[in-house]
Amino acid sequence: MEYVLKTEIDAPIDEVFSILSDLQRLPEYVPNIREATPEGDGTVRVRGEVVGHSFDKEACFDMDEAAKTMSWQVGAGRHYRGDLAVIDHGASCFLMVTLHIAGAEEPSDERTAQINRQLEGALDRIKRICESETANADSGQAYLG
Predict the structure, then answer these.
(1) Across the chain, where does the E strand assignment appear?
(2) 18-41: per-residue pLDDT in tens?
(3) Strand 43-50 relative to strand 92-101: parallel, antiparallel, unpaired?
(4) Which of 22, 25, 61, 133 sits at a 20 to 30 Å CA gap from 45?
């Protein structure tokens, strides 16, 4: 199953990508992740909980700073993967996220709606963080989350 969402962020593309490429910050905007620990070579140990089940998995990230894109795969078999692109739009930018979840059967309508809500929530948090940090940097204030 594939999920695609896009949002506009009122912040410069370089600043948005800088925030997103700091992988230790994943728990700030991905609600299922409690901890993200970079282990080198694009590998990050992610720990958290999904639908009442704890996880401790290795995630592999591939970033292209020039293109402002990132892709990731999680766990053995890589059944969970995604792509992210930050697209320049003058003083603002667009963030497009595509999430791919492979499975033996199609998810229920309820599960699909839940995944869409979680993805929308993550994009809303990213937007809020990026816009707040940019505004605070312009005014000399620190971001307090």
Answers:
(1) 2-9, 33-40, 43-50, 53-64, 69-74, 80-89, 92-101
(2) 999 999 999 999 988 999 999 988
(3) unpaired
(4) 133
